[in-house]
Amino acid sequence: MVKRTLPTNPKTRRLIKLLRKASRSNESAVWRTLSESLTTPTRRRVSINVSKIDKLTVEGDTVAVPGKVLGFGNISKNVDVAALSFSQSAKDKIAQAGGRAMTFEDLMSANPHGKNVKILR
């Protein structure tokens, strides 16, 4: 059987460790699920457009994307989005709609127990 390896990017590895630690200390399954999603190979990591975020959320939601958020489409709702990375157009569209584009570290400090966080894949 082939040994499963973690990503080679040091920032991503540090983020995975941080998410696992937060999962254990806060007894939150959300952070554990995100850390497992981030261990996938880069070529299989998700990329979601802001139009899909607009379809799947309601006003005031907090969303976590274990991949990249792209700027195709429009977003009309005030939504906080945490992701591994953002395109510049996605950041601009989220900000224009009144939401925030943030990192996972920012989301963990604002909501340590992971209450009401939706994971989009």
Explain what you see.
There is one protein chain. The protein has 121 residues and is an alpha/beta fold. It has a single domain (10-119), classed as Ribosomal Protein L15, Chain: K, domain 2, CATH 3.100.10. It is built from five helices and five strands. Strands 1, 2, 3, 4 and 5 form a five-stranded parallel beta sheet that branches. The mean pLDDT is 95.
> How many structural units, i.e. domains?
1
* CATH architecture descriptor text: Ribosomal Protein L15, Chain: K, domain 2
- The class by helix and strand makeup works out as alpha/beta
What is the helix tally? 5
Computed over alpha carbons, the radius of gyration is: 14 Å
CATH topology (fold) name: Ribosomal Protein L15, Chain: K, domain 2
What is the H/E order? HHEHEEHEHE
Q: Give the CATH class.
A: Alpha Beta
Shape: globular
> How many DSSP-defined strands?
5
Strand content: 15-25%
Structure at a glance:
With 121 residues, the chain is α/β, with parallel strands linked by helices.
List the helices and strands and how they pair.
Elements: H1 10-26, H2 29-38, E1 46-49, H3 50-56, E2 62-70, E3 80-86, H4 88-96, E4 100-102, H5 104-110, E5 117-119
Parallel strand pairs: 1-2, 2-3, 2-5, 3-4
